[in-house]
Amino acid sequence: MMTLRAASVLLTIVAQWHVGCTMNANTLGQWGGTDKAYPGAERPASEISIFQCGFGLAVLAIDENRSLVGETAQCSYALLPGRHTFRVSIRHSDAAAAGKWVQLNDQVVEYDLVAGKTYSLHAFPQDKDSLAAFTIHMSDPVLNKIVTVAVFHCAKDLPKGHCKVSPPSQAQARANEKTRQGVTGKGREASN
What we know:
Layout: H1 2-19, H2 25-28, E1 35-36, E2 49-53, E3 57-62, E4 76-79, E5 82-94, E6 99-102, E7 107-113, E8 118-127, E9 130-140, E10 145-153, E11 164-166, H3 170-184
Parallel strand pairs: 1-4, 2-8
Antiparallel strand pairs: 2-4, 3-5, 5-6, 5-7, 8-9, 9-10, 10-11
């Protein structure tokens, strides 16, 4: 009788997962799924953007909604196209030291998402031997490249475990915008 009860509970969970009821990507972690993170009725894939948590960081909020969160490679959200803010914190694993470096404060980066595309945000140390600076990159399918969106400086003059953010260099920002204009013909307006 106990085996039958356990089997029926498991079957219910699997059925809900497949039809998208009570479970979502954040409940299931890396098992998959995309959460609807916009108001109103469901929209077709051609009208939404997918944002996924990448590597080396944790997403603490999207558009200041702190219920939209995820650890490294463990979230996927359907968002409306346009400019979004992502509150993030570095999570750098160090196999040699058998541990993880965690940024104690958080930073906000922004990016324009285009409908029908899937994006992911990643953080990498600028120098593999130092945790003094990290670059934040968005995998952009419109540009078909990795775009640097910010640089986190975690210098010795800041409290231990804290970083401050700066935009990419002006040359990098101009190159990103020029590429977007060449691909879409519109630049930033392409995502609005």
